[in-house]
Amino acid sequence: MGGAELTPAFSPEEINICWREAFNAADIPALLELYEPGAVLIPAPGAGPVSGLDAIEACLRWLAGTGGKITYQPRFWLQNGDLAMGRIDFRPVGPG
To answer: Is this model's pTM higher than 0.85 or not?
Structure first.
């Protein structure tokens, strides 16, 4: 695992908690552990999708570098076996 020790996620919904904790700690290695190699991230409303761990890491480093913290509101989860897709609205709450 990356830097901070995160609580393991046992459901898709718990991934949101782990993501928020890692992002608010600016722990990029821990954030990356939440993504599969072929994952896709839409980093902001209106932004195009970013795929692959290298591109996602660059995006996350930029976002974390702003110094802001986030909260989130889950919208939905679609789950089929061990795969899940969700829509989560993350909201900035200001720097530091």
So the answer is: no
| CATH number, residue 76 | 3.10.450.50
8, 33 Cβ separation under 8 angstroms: no
In this predicted structure, the answer to whether residue 63 has a pLDDT above a threshold of 90 is: no
Could you tell me if 40 and 51 are in contact, meaning their C-beta atoms sit under 8 angstroms apart? Answer: yes
Which one, of 73, 72, 80, 1, lies nearest residue 34 by Cα? 1
Residue 19 and residue 4: Cα distance in Å, rounded?
12
Both structure tokens of 91: 């909201």
Is residue 1 situated within a structural domain?
Answer: no
Residue 16 counted as domain residue: yes
67 within a domain of the structure (yes/no): yes
The answer to whether residue 70 sits within a structural domain is yes
Confidence of residue 7 (pLDDT cuts 50, 70, 90): low
Q: Name 64's bridge partners.
A: none
